[in-house]
Write a structure and sequence with these properties.
The complex is a heterodimer of chains A (436) and B (291). Chain A has 436 residues and is α/β, with parallel strands linked by helices. Chain A is built from 20 helices and 13 strands. Chain A has 2 domains: 34-151 and 323-358, Periplasmic binding protein-like II (D-Maltodextrin-Binding Protein, domain 2), CATH 3.40.190; 154-321 and 381-434, 3-Layer(aba) Sandwich (D-Maltodextrin-Binding Protein, domain 2), CATH 3.40.190. In chain A, a hairpin with a 2-residue loop joins strand 4 (140-141) and strand 5 (144-145). Chain A is globular. Helices cover 74% and strands 1% of the residues of chain B. Chain B has a domain at 67-235: MetI-like (MetI-like fold). Chain B has a two-stranded antiparallel sheet with strand order 1-2. Chain B contains 13 helices and 2 strands. Chain B has helices at residues 3-35, 52-58, 61-91, 97-111, 114-124, 131-138, 155-158, 160-180, 184-192, 198-225, 229-234, 246-255, 260-290; strands at 38-39, 47-48. The radius of gyration of chain B is 24 Å and the shape is flat. The chains are: A alpha/beta (436), B mainly alpha (291). The A-B interface holds A 1-2, 5, 9, 12, 16, 82, 85-86, 88-89, 91, 107, 110-113, 198-201, 255-261, 265, 269, 274, 400-401, 403-405, 408-409, 411-412, 415, 417 and B 1, 5, 9, 12, 16, 41-45, 122, 125-128, 147-150, 152, 155, 235-236, 238-241, 252, 255-260.
């Protein structure tokens, strides 16, 4: 009996010890100098043209640089955001990773997790100077530039089905009044005016309210309020913006039960021809081109929301962000940093930007579109964006906590909540996050 | 082997499990209680703020709403799952082909992933193409049609049927095996004394399996306190926190608002509330067994 006990125990001990030992070995290999090893986290997981193009860039880099051992880990967008935060908390960030401008970049800089790429950018002026105006702002903290955008994401575009508009003799709205009239006519004919899927509650905020907010309050006011510097979310203009949003809901602009379906189901309603319009970001275009039935796709056009009467914002503008960029881990130095910068250039340099544009994704970089190759809807979008100013999306400028309060507040608003109370909640969340 | 060495053996045998339990359950609980005293976004500087997170929780209406929703879940589980499972176990106690098939069919949701269950019920409740509203139309009850998951007043109750449906099979199996373990002689004796049908159920079968029922209730309470996945899949706690549970609120505060300190404080509150509830139920059952 005793012998068996001793044997069992020693086996357990052996397993435990060997388990620990294995881990140490793996870590030892990670810090070895030769060959250079790079870990990359990104969100190019799908079968859409952009993801495929980006993965191809990674593969090309791998072939061209046999001395670099590239270990890439694709994660879905939401998963990547959460994972980055968790890794940041544990101080185990990958070497190079897809990150978002503004709020996330600022938080990473504050956490001392990423390093600036100014020197590298300055060494290639023909690259640096070709970005569109303000493209690098979202990645700039205290004059230091931490990344460059790999695309451009207008988050608020109005896609509409011309056939449905023609059928009920409705004009594509250019003024707010025309929009309300169109909503009314569609409702009378039992067509959903605007499809909305707000279960993941960022959708209404990012695709609709960011633009309405900007139209009513103007960009300057919003930026001041976001910094809690001379403006507050309890100001009458913001309450007014919330009221405009609420009135859209009251006019039944969206189908009933929009809080229980997600963005995919929202696009389904549009694909099935059940709704005349859908408001979604630039990323929806690839989805439309790949998945919408031909009779809907051929009739689909793209525009922006009409101006709100009495609003202080610019009419020819829509909410959006410069796209994601590659963040560079603070700990990198020497050969590893060199390799990481090369990869960053491969992904977001001129060739990377061209590959992105060729995959029907807008870029924040001055490039001519080859209109003979691109899908007509993308050409339409490209032309629209050339003459449209991009205003800030709420979730890119507000703190994470205030974004969450805004998203929930908008759901509450559409269920009949009091705009003043909701404004006060957003104000207190943003002030709390900034410590004011 | 004498008592001393056998105790040593027990200690040795338990050590690995205790070590793992301590490392992965106990230490994190203490750790997160510690984080609860900080204003922290997950990385960067932690700012010690004392009990501020806890006082905020006390004044946070969303927290109390989550607690209320959690209690609705616990009640629905205890008064929904257990009686339904018990009734089904009594009806389906024979080992015929048909009854075995029915038992398996009822057990089926248990082996399905919660994601699948959530998706299925989401389409049942779908406001435009949902089968539930379609059925109501078909039987002429169009007035009863509702926005099941997006009306903040009823959304939490709409989550109760999928919750009951997905777990009833587990308790059915537990109760079935308990009923089958009752020796045949007892039933024979009861029959001789004239106890058949309802009488036999109320005075013989139920008292014998009562301890199993108690265990099932404890499982129910602890299981529904931990509920997270179904709600996260179906509503993400929305609309506007209407279906938030303690666990989803903790998750959203930590990983959506990035308030790790506040999220940690909420998880500490969850631990305290669970301890109180489990303590109460332990006290109630032990009091009953003594009397």
């Amino acid at each position: 009996m005793k012998k068996i006990t001793a044997l069992t125990l020693s086996i357990i001990l052996l397993i435990l010890l060997s388990g620990c030992g294995g881990e140490e070995n793996a870590q030892g290999a990670g810090t070895a100098d030769d060959p250079v090893k790079l870990t990359v986290w990104h969100n190019w997981t799908g079968q859409d043209a952009k993801s495929i193009a980006m993965r191809k860039l990674l593969d090309d880099f791998r072939t061209a640089h046999s001395e670099i051992e590239l270990e890439d880990e694709p994660l879905p967008t939401d998963g990547l955001k959460t994972r980055l935060r968790t890794a940041a908390a544990a101080d185990e960030m990958p070497d190079l990773f897809v990150m978002w401008p503004d709020a996330m970049t600022k938080e990473f800089v504050k956490g001392d997790l990423i390093q600036p790429i100014n020197e590298f950018l300055d060494s290639k002026p023909e690259w640096k100077n070709n970005f569109i105006p303000n493209a690098l702002d979202g990645y700039t903290v205290n004059e230091q530039i931490y990344s460059v955008p790999m695309n451009l994401a207008p988050s608020s575009l109005l896609f509409y089905n011309q056939a449905i508009f023609d059928q009920y003799k409705v004009k594509v709205p250019e003024t707010w009044e025309e929009l309300m009239k169109a909503i009314d006519t569609f409702n009378q004919n039992k067509v959903i005016p605007i499809a909305l899927g707000n279960k993941a509650n960022w959708v209404a905020q990012s695709t609709i309210f960011s633009t309405i907010g900007d139209r009513v309050t103007g960009t300057d006011w919003f930026l001041k309020a976001a910094e809690q510097n001379g403006a507050s979310f309890t100001d009458p203009q913001f309450v007014q913006a919330l009221t405009v949003m609420q009135d859209l809901g009251k006019a039944n602009a969206f189908q009933s039960g929009f809080d229980s379906i997600d963005e995919t189901q929202m696009m389904q309603l549009y694909f099935q021809g059940k709704s005349a319009m859908v408001i979604n970001g630039g990323w929806a275009l690839a989805n439309l081109v790949n998945n919408a039935p031909a009779e809907v796709l051929d009739q689909t056009h793209v525009t922006i929301l009409p101006p709100v009467p009495g609003g202080k914002g610019e009419a020819q503008s829509t909410a959006g962000v410069v796209g994601t960029g590659m963040g560079l881990n603070k700990k990198l130095e020497g050969k590893q940093k060199e390799a990481a910068l090369q990869l960053l250039y491969a992904l977001s340099g001129p060739e990377g930007q061209q590959a992105t544009l060729d995959s029907s994704t807008l870029v924040s970089y001055k490039l001519e579109l080859d209109k003979s190759k691109a899908h007509p809807l993308f050409v339409e979008l490209y032309d629209l964006i050339q003459k449209t100013k991009i205003s800030p999306v709420y979730d890119s400028k507000l703190s994470s906590a205030a974004v969450e309060v805004t998203n929930n507040g908008l759901q509450e608003l559409m269920m009949g909540g009091n705009p003043q109370d909701i404004a006060a909640k957003i104000q207190s969340a943003q002030a709390g996050a900034l410590g004011k | 082997m004498n008592a001393m060495s056998s105790r040593k053996f027990v200690m040795f045998g338990l050590a690995p499990a205790l070590l793992i339990y301590g490392l992965f359950v106990f230490v994190p609980v203490v750790w997160s209680a510690y984080y609860g005293f900080f204003n922290w976004s997950g990385f960067g500087d932690k700012q010690y703020i004392g009990l501020a997170n806890y006082t905020e929780i006390i004044h946070d209406s969303t927290f109390w709403r989550s607690l209320k929703n959690n209690i609705i879940f616990v009640l629905a589980a205890v008064f929904g799952q257990v009686p339904i499972a018990l009734a089904l176990a009594v009806i389906l106690h024979k080992n015929t082909w048909m009854q075995r098939f029915l038992r398996s069919a009822i057990f089926l949701p248990m082996v399905m992933s919660t994601v699948v269950i959530g998706m299925v019920w989401q389409y049942i409740y779908h406001p435009q193409i949902g089968i539930l509203n379609f059925l109501l139309d078909a039987v002429g009850l169009s007035g009863w049609k509702l926005n099941w998951l997006s009306d903040s007043g009823i959304a939490i109750y709409s989550l109760v049927p999928p919750l009951i449906w997905s777990f009833v099979g587990l308790y059915l199996i537990i109760f079935s095996s308990a009923l089958q373990n009752i020796p045949g002689e007892i039933h024979d004796a009861a029959e001789l004394d004239g106890a058949i049908g309802w009488r036999r159920l109320a005075y013989i079968s139920l008292p014998i399996i009562w301890t199993t029922v108690q265990v099932a209730i404890v499982l129910c309470i602890s299981g529904s306190l931990k509920s997270f996945d179904l709600v996260y899949i179906m509503t993400r706690g929305g609309p506007a926190h209407a279906t938030e549970l303690l666990a989803t609120y903790m998750y959203n505060s930590t990983f959506t608002s990035y308030r790790y300190g506040y999220g940690s404080a909420i998880s500490t509150m969850i631990v305290l509330i669970s301890l109180v509830l489990i303590g109460t139920s332990q006290w109630l059952t032990s009091r009953k067994s003594r009397s």
